[in-house]
Amino acid sequence: MLKTRIIPCLDVADGRVVKGVNFVDLVDAGDPVEAARAYDAAGADEICFLDIHATHENRGTMFDLVTRTAEQCFVPLTVGGGVRSHQDVRALLLAGADKVSFNSAAVANPDVVAEAADRFGSQCIVVAVDAKTVTPGKWEIFTHGGRKATGIDAVEFARLAEAKGAGEILLTSMDRDGTKSGYNLPLTRAISDAVGIPVIASGGVGTLDHLVEGVTEGHASAVLAASIFHFGTFSIAEAKAHMAAAGIPMRLT
Amino acid sequence: MRVALVDYDSGNLHSAEKAFQLMGREAGAEVVVTSDPEVVARADRIVLPGDGAFPACRAALDAVDGMTEALRDAVLARGVPFMGICVGMQMLADLGHEYRPTEGLGWIGGEVVAIDAAETRAAGLKVPHMGWNDLVIDHPHPVLEGITTGDHAYFVHSWQFRVANPAERLAHAGYGSAVTAVVGRDNIVGTQFHPEKSQGVGLRMIGNFLGWRV
């Protein structure tokens, strides 16, 4: 049986982890490679790097990080942030990423997803959907870190991303991100039920029950979290044990 | 020992290279990523990765002048141990149906067909089959030494290899119905999942492959 994935996400800026990672035993907690290696050893099912102010000037730093991470981590690595074209996808895949995530570029031009999926296969193309509630039961896509409204319906956009060849959706609730009040479950369920591809729930995790709800009520295939793991509030093993106890199939290592 | 990872411009070889290097270090294996048929011809182990669509991978492999001939000679005529990964495993089949019927290498009988989206959806499952699934060993094999039913491997695929001869399906995973996970006969093995992304289980299989005496 396929297991539900737990994915720690590292926000990276200029080659450093933003917000820090509060693990013991790390020589340099701000080094994304060290943090990724620790998560690999802790039993994370995948690891995600998000380049939060991706600019052309610092792309080289990200490629270097991805290359060094791939040398030491033997779980899949997803990289997002500032990905604009199939050339960007290729460069990241060659550096050692296993999946690459489009965000603003896919909203501006959904065909960029199709071009990348045709070349490299849907299995490595993720579309990140950042959505905010506009009225109850209605969600809209926001870009540029949640600052720019687009008027695009989030459920419709997720369907479009699937039709263009995305292999997975990384869904972040902009309302919940950073609040520790739990995933936006109606949004997560609406998108998960609307598409046939896996959906990763993101934004708002504060407790282990939130991870459970993302799957049982949000119907997500995978759950992503950042600060609860980075700050050592919970370990990956604790999260997995808690989800397994709630009846969710997990890979326990 | 020389291990050739065949580079035909299809996907991420970096992860596979690092995993084979790690496991080959003790055995003193030299791991080379190559698109040179002559290097493949001299190798003691051959690995064919592959990501993306079947027809695109097949076309890309054929586009490397002399490569399929070198592979056939090494693997079929001289019995050099061979491992296919993901689409590199699917291409062992007679025929692939992704986008359009495309001939495979025909080294393991069978066809590559879609994971039935309607069937999986009815069961609440998504396509691609993406993530960690537990293996069910159908037939013991030296490359599966130390791997037991219930161990997890990382899958990501929408198409699956329906093997004609059940004896050549070495392991499967449950996803709606049984999805082929490992194939093999004689000096040939293939994995649908990514051993280079399957932590200890995958690394163990890579180590077994490097030590395999056919």
UniProtKB/TrEMBL annotation, chain A:
Answer whether the UniProt record assigns the keyword Lyase to this protein: yes
> What keywords appear on the UniProt entry?
Amino-acid biosynthesis, Cytoplasm, Histidine biosynthesis, Lyase
Recorded E.C. number(s)? 4.3.2.10
- Single GO molecular function: imidazoleglycerol-phosphate synthase activity
Mind telling me which Pfam families this protein's record contains? Answer: His_biosynth
Its GO CC terms are: cytoplasm
Where is the protein localized?
Cytoplasm
Specify the domain of life of the species encoding this protein.
Answer: Bacteria
Q: Where is the active site?
A: D11, D130
What pathway or pathways are given for this protein in its record? Answer: Amino-acid biosynthesis; L-histidine biosynthesis; L-histidine from 5-phospho-alpha-D-ribose 1-diphosphate: step 5/9
- GO BP: any one term: L-histidine biosynthetic process
SUPFAM superfamilies assigned to the protein according to its UniProt record, in alphabetical order: Ribulose-phoshate binding barrel (SSF51366)
Could you tell me what reaction this enzyme catalyses? 5-[(5-phospho-1-deoxy-D-ribulos-1-ylimino)methylamino]-1-(5-phospho-beta-D-ribosyl)imidazole-4-carboxamide + L-glutamine = D-erythro-1-(imidazol-4-yl)glycerol 3-phosphate + 5-amino-1-(5-phospho-beta-D-ribosyl)imidazole-4-carboxamide + L-glutamate + H(+)
How is the subunit organization of this protein annotated in UniProt?
Heterodimer of HisH and HisF.
* Similarity-based family: Belongs to the HisA/HisF family.
Function text: IGPS catalyzes the conversion of PRFAR and glutamine to IGP, AICAR and glutamate. The HisF subunit catalyzes the cyclization activity that produces IGP and AICAR from PRFAR using the ammonia provided by the HisH subunit.
- UniProt protein name: Imidazole glycerol phosphate synthase subunit HisF
Q: From which lineage does this chain's organism come?
A: Bacteria, Pseudomonadati, Pseudomonadota, Alphaproteobacteria, Rhodobacterales
From TrEMBL, chain B:
Segments forming domain Glutamine amidotransferase: 9-209
Q: Which reaction does it catalyse?
A: L-glutamine + H2O = L-glutamate + NH4(+); 5-[(5-phospho-1-deoxy-D-ribulos-1-ylimino)methylamino]-1-(5-phospho-beta-D-ribosyl)imidazole-4-carboxamide + L-glutamine = D-erythro-1-(imidazol-4-yl)glycerol 3-phosphate + 5-amino-1-(5-phospho-beta-D-ribosyl)imidazole-4-carboxamide + L-glutamate + H(+)
Highest taxon listed in the record's lineage? Bacteria
Its pathway, per UniProt, is: Amino-acid biosynthesis; L-histidine biosynthesis; L-histidine from 5-phospho-alpha-D-ribose 1-diphosphate: step 5/9
Q: Where in the cell is it found?
A: Cytoplasm
InterPro entries (UniProt xref) = Class_I_gatase-like, GATASE, Imidazole-glycPsynth_HisH
One GO molecular-function annotation for this sequence? glutaminase activity
* A Gene Ontology biological process term: L-histidine biosynthetic process
PANTHER family, alphabetically? IMIDAZOLE GLYCEROL PHOSPHATE SYNTHASE SUBUNIT HISH
Function as written in the Swiss-Prot or TrEMBL entry = IGPS catalyzes the conversion of PRFAR and glutamine to IGP, AICAR and glutamate. The HisH subunit catalyzes the hydrolysis of glutamine to glutamate and ammonia as part of the synthesis of IGP and AICAR. The resulting ammonia molecule is channeled to the active site of HisF.
Q: What is this protein called?
A: Imidazole glycerol phosphate synthase subunit HisH
Organism this protein belongs to: Paracoccus zhejiangensis
Gene name of the encoded protein? hisH
